[in-house]
Amino acid sequence: MLYRLFVLWQRKQRRVVIVDGRAKANKTKLSEVEYEAVRVLAVKIAEDPPPFASVDDFIQADLSAQA
Fold first, then answer.
1. How many angstroms separate the CA atoms of 65 and 61, rounded?
2. What is the predicted pLDDT for the residue at 52?
3. Helix axis angle, 55-66 relative to 32-47, nearest 10°?
4. Ordered mean pLDDT values, 10 residues apiece, the chain (67 residues)
5. 9-14 long-range contacts, Cβ below 8 Å, gap at least 24?
């Protein structure tokens, strides 16, 4: 099993934001749907960064993206 951690480097704010994490079997690919879900979260964070994001913020963003 391999794990992927997606982060967004916010250089001006001097911080790294964890966008999402995914797991996949060895020698397989993540689907485009999964990559798109990560992209949506990254754009949301980049456009309107909360001062401190909680797990609930990411869950709400993910649920909104799926709707």
1. 6
2. 65
3. 120
4. 90 81 94 93 79 73 82
5. 10/46, 10/49, 13/49
